[in-house]
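dude i think i finally got it to work??
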Amino acid sequence: MNSPPIPAQPSREDRLHLGGQRDNRSPFQRDRDRILYTSAFRRLAGVTQVFSADEGHVFHNRLTHSLEVAQVARRIAERLLGDGCDEAEKLGGLDPDVVEAAALAHDLGHPPFGHTAEEELDELVRQAGIPDGFEGNPQSFRIVTKLALRSPYHEGLDLTRATLNAILKYPWFREGTGTRYRKRGAYRSEQTEFGFARALVPPGDERKSLEAEIMDWADDVTYAVHDVADFFRAGLVPLDRLCSDNDDSERRRFFDGVFARHRQPEDSLGHPRAELEQAFEDLVAFIPVDEIHLGTKKHRAALRSTTAGLIATYVRAVQLDASAIEGGSRLRIEPAKHKKEVIMLKELTWHYVILNPSLASKQFGQRRIIRDLFNIFHSAARSPKDQTVFPFAYRELIQAAGGSGAEVTRLVTDMIAGMTEQQAASLHRRVTGTSLGSALDYLG
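look at this
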């Protein structure tokens, strides 16, 4: 089906393809619903946030995280519209359904085993000759524009310009060094869709949209607050010692560890060490935790009250910045110390959990699973007799692409990145001969 011509003045409600029959929903509500009902969204229940559910505690996964980001982002958008609707329009437009849809979509491209697999896939794809490599954000954009299906007539979910633009936390392609090498919003294989989304933005303006900024802040806040709560309950983050009025030795050790990793915090964390330390000192003074978490009613109520209070504080801190019409961030966090608090809360998870040797050894095995799967399937794609190892959906695409080349490399990556962690581990055991499973097992 041919795409309609792009109008001279792009609208936020435009779709790249025909949008289908209209109903009682707004275009942006339809975007939100399309994302919610994808298999890519359901898959996030089987993808780790930091620790998987089989560790014995109920940790957040990527699905629960995405739902919470969507809730927080929507509440921020609704509050900002109530405070200054005219300002929001001047800053590019703001719709709570767009913000919620972008939040639901922001982690769709997150591969099994999280950032461990992300780094491994990036290296493997680059070694296979694709400079764009792999990263979760452009993979999310690729899913909603190419891989997820809702119609036999076109690829992707056919989302509006506004929603596609709001998904782009990093609205640029991969560049040679620095942040733009590590983080980007789209692969060049989705250049057409990227250009369609960014047509709402004046030429040369490389800022994320207002709606993307709100989604990004909501992502940071929910990750920072809820992961710390998870790991305090699990006995990994010692909030009781960090919040002590009588002994600051644990806070000192935490600070030393953080700033040993970030030797130039002004560059890596955005603020000087003294300001970040003071923000954390101010924060812990208001956290009512003075003993380890035992799961009693008192402890559960105190922790729940703390997390709810922090989320509410960080939602209220968001203000529109009308002076940003010509440049700069469209959001302002007031008081500014709240942004530093969120930074330090995220560092708690890094310091006490992600850099823990027990997790690092597990990640070594996860890298091996991803590397083996990529090498096995990348090789199988080039052999017609071995292409039968692929599920039917990918077999069709690989055969149509001729079994080799950049498109096939990307398809193999799509398949691996689209698995749950259980699927990846099970398939690895099967194709390496560790545990062959049954011929009756469904490999969809």
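The chain has a mean pLDDT of 90.
im so relieved honestly
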